[in-house]
Amino acid sequence: MKKKHRILIINPKADATAIALYENEVPIFEQSIIQEDTKGYSAVSLQAPARTKKILDFLLSEGINLSKINAVAGRGGLLKPIKGGTYMVNDEMLEDLRAGERGEHASNLGGIIAADIASGLNIPAFIVDPVVVDELDDVARISGYPLISRKSVFHALNHKACGRRAAMELGKRYEDCHFIVAHLGDGITIGAHKQGKVIDVNNGLNGEGPFSPERAGSLPHGDLIDLCYSGKYSYKEMKEQLLYHAGISGYLNKNDLTQLEEGMKDGSEQDELIFRALAYQVAKEIGSASTVLSGQIDAIILTGVMAYSHLLVDEIVKRTNWIADVFTYPGENDMQSLANGCLRVLRGEEQAKEYTHKVGKQESELYG
Amino acid sequence: MDLSYQSIEQSIFQELKEAVILIDKHGKIVCYNQQAKVVAQSQHSRELSMHAHILDVFPKSELMRVLQTKKAEIRKLFRLNDTLSVHVSRFPLLDNAGELLGAAAIIQQDGASAENNWQIDEYIQEGMQTVLQNTSQAFVILNEHGFTILQNPAHEKFLLTLQKDSAAEAVWKQKLEEVCKKTLQTRRMVEEKIRGESMEGSVKCLPNLIDGVLKGCILFIDHNMEQAELRKKLEQSRRIIRALETQSRFKDFTINSARMKMAVQQGKIAADMDYPVFLRGAAGTGKKMLANAIHNDGKRRYQAFTVVDCLKDEGKLADYLGRMSSKDISSHPQGTVYFKNITALPLNQQMQLHQIALNSQGNAAVYRLIVSSDVNVETAMIEGAFQKELYYDLLQTSIHMPALKERKEDIAPLVEEWIQIGNEEYGSCITSIDPAAMEVLQNFPYNNNFKELRASLEHSLAKLDRGTTTLSVSHLAFFANAKNNQEESNPDTGDKPLSELVEEYEKVIIKKTMAELDGNKTLTAKKLGLSVRNLYYKLEKYQLN
User: Which residues contact B247 (CB under 8 A, 6 or more apart)?
Assistant: First the structure.
């Protein structure tokens, strides 16, 4: 009989903490705990004690036996660039998460809260595939302009979880497969997974790749520079424009794929054009990733919330199915991915990695 | 016509209490008196004036109908405005030849004729009736003797909900009687609030006075009985979850008996202190449950509760004793560490535990220590098998857990509670227990106390036929079997339970094997398939040393 591992998952958001309790791969429950008092803190990490108390009080009030929990997994935060995998939360990681030097973000609380809870329960705390996972090939870091290096910032947790899931369905090890994973969420990141490593991926947050519901994606830089220096926009305005008022939102003032589909049903030609352009750009980026993997690809994986759209998936598949079979795993499944990462370590299928200040390559070292 | 007579007539016309309006055959006003002006003003419409059309001044006037029907209408109700209706008589004005000249309206304005709309409008009356029937506020009309005359469905529902909670029923009934009596005596409104453990509400009682005569009273009741019932059900569900999760709280104990109440009370005191706790009592009396409650209701509730069985967990025992006695605080386990079967500890480890107990005393920053034993520690100490120092450490907060036979009044509620949990776990649907079955359960000579009772009930529930809702004696197969086995295997065993007989048999076997091997304990343990530690424990238990 399989040993039962009970795992508490902590996924902090800006004004709530999503938690889940898993028994092996099965969720016992999921709950979002609203955190009203997030404003009065000078640093995000200072919210940890209040959030921890609220989580534990909730679990106790529901009658959950805390001592039955075997491990706590938190959403990884903005750490130094590291390889993918499951990391034990240690003092050095906590130091970096608390300092928030690489940015203040609610996900920094994941590791801190997990460690707080786990230490009281004499159990380990982990983080799994944080957004800072960096496995880029050296050749992929070259941007074409020496002052700018390409960075690896993407939805690593979902990318890796989908890669592992597809490998399992193919009856192979993730470390033996070549995949192209397209995460189609608020931002779009398309990564080339080579033998368990994401050797190239577009930086969806900072303007690479296809446009998405609210972001611009790659733009001709000459025109962009002209726009920036036109005197019409401040730095902040330009940033906000490209991150929140571009893409579908910029063209059609709609920030949702469903609205776009409704517009198409009503016969809007403009909506249809933008929809086709979105599928076209995603397919183009997938095509580009296929060359990264020299055409040896086990599968293309479409994931993220936009993968729920049959129309979009069909449109992308039409253009890409000559490359490889397409697997669709809609949604983000953060909690399940965190639980799976933790289970691999608890079952001894994978060794937990240790985060040290040396492990995280210095930015200068990585980006020239 | 005589002018003076005409002016007198005019004066009388103007001073009439009734409002009078005359219209010509086209509907234009040709004559009205002073009172008619007042009526028009109260209608908040256009000012009354000569030659204005009647419908412009009174948009809902029905006087035009009389022009068509030429029939008088006596004392008809007319809605003057949103709140008031008046009586109107309408007459056609005809000449001698019967030709229509116009029509007159006489509006009676005195108090007796004017009525509030709600009294006369049927649809409003019906509306009010619907509101009263469907409002969540319960009300009841009582006569002067306190007997119910009329009640709304919310009140009926309230009474039904009360029937399910006898404690709340008693409180509410007493309060309602008091309030009612007070109102009837004082003829004044009385308002009171009710606060209880699971209920909250208020009651307002108004005297029903008709022409100054007391005809009874009306009670308005605001209550949270439904919410309280839902909260109770939620707490029951959580209690079941806690039981399945083995996550105990003090409120989960059934404490009708004085002895158990005492034990739980002592546990509550211990939970707030940072001293080692010693739980004593026979097997199955709930020592672990109380240890768990001390942890969960104490300040270490966010930390781990670790159980170390001194009889079975040799590796874990050494590890925890090592970590707890370490000078490196970072290696200390967090939370509560519960050592059960403490008398099975070898003497050297008892000394180690003594040091641990000393270090943790009064120290809120480190782990809490709870130990338990189901054998007599004093006897072990006299025989030199238990360290005096440790004994005195533990004596300070020692809690005795009573056996089930010492707390018989707790058995019925325990059975009911465990049947509820068993229903969840085994998919059975027992809703009642046959009194004869309950009697058997209450008088059974339990050897392993609550543990045995629970196991027996679970055994019975697991084997129930589908659809059985009442647990009867025939379902208590475990008890019947135990009894039969006793009778078959040893007719002379009297009332001794199976577990006691097993122990007696075990004692004989150990004694015999020891004798065969010249008292060599290592060889005896090996032959019997026991660990040496376990053998020592059993020797001590059966006093074979």
Answer: A60, A63, A64, A65, B241, B292, B296
